[in-house]
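Field reference: sequence -> structure
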Amino acid sequence: MNDLDVFDRLLAPEGQTLLAELRHHDPSDELAAATRLRRDHPADLVSAALGQAQLRQRAVAKFGADAWRMYFTPNGVEQSTRATVAAHRAARLAALGVRTLADLCCGIGGDAIALARAGIRVLAVDRDPLACAAARANAEALGLAELIEVRCADVTEVDTAGYDAVFVDPARRKKTRGGRIFDPEAYSPPLSWAVEAARKAPVAALKIAPGVPHDALPEDAETEWISDGGDVKEAVVWFGAAGDGADRLTPGGRRATLLPSGDSLLGAGLPDPEPGPVGGWLYEPDGAVIRAHLVAEVARQVGGRLIDPTIAYITADRLAGTPYATAYAITDVLPFHVKKLKALLRERGVGIAVIKKRGSAVEPEELRKKLKLGGGRKSCTIFLTRVAGAPAMLLGHPATDPASDPDPDPDPVTPGR
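Structure field:
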């Protein structure tokens, strides 16, 4: 009996009973649970239910409470879009006037669900029969079956004419040996095919890896990097001239969008700011800003400069608000020296250190072991980086961190000690 037959049995009453029993299953107790359940149920069905229960537990991080009603494949959990990101993209498509859409490489249907919830009628296509079965089951389980049609087919053979938009999410993981694929032409289907398919539609969105080289991006499209809770999740290449005002697509544009706030920064093509001395404040741009090459735009917002031509840290003499970077009050700028750092932290009673690095070969955990911090309650943020080309340590604290006694107008930084 193949995987698809077993999956169908999971949807039947006996399978549903098993899944309900495993709602709070502890993965460490799998052997005992399997032994107990096999007394009353077929072994292959028990194995499938245990596997599905584990996939649902993993999927909660992406789908929240919906995960307990949904169905997954191992690849589906790994490759599906986080629900918050899918909802953002669906909302943007709806704002662009999209009412019907072809979702190519739909997987288990995570994006199709978000699109349907935004009021868009979806044709969801994938060549994997098991993924298609999961997508159908998910549409049914979440009450969206009337808006989602699932078709098992090769996406390169699907006619998307007549749809308002096309969304393509090519596979970016190797089928053997695991791991991600970084060459866009090694996607399945290749990025070049997806781009041509997108250009045939009135509006299109292509989901790609956030680390894609900028020179691989089509100039007639807007590319948007999206972070969620500070973690960069994906990039989306947008085609079309739809929308107006803030919703309008900008061919050739580079955009950074931060979730859950929804703040979105469109690049203005600014040159990198000149580097300069470290001031009283350091700004750490959001990862989406860095990936989109929009550090210069944030530097302009805060009236700042770079600490080094090759490092994406911005420094300024005064604090200015921006949603696109986290601000830190800087108290010390020192050449890298472990013994001096250890002595300084001990002198100040620092027991909690947050260690960040950018442009440094030093590993934070190795440094933490060498510091041997005591049990003090004071905290300190340590930046391992370069200043004007030289290895340096910047000490400070988040601008709103009460544990560090922040001063809204700090004294000038100590250049050395």
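Note: The chain has 13 helices and 16 strands.
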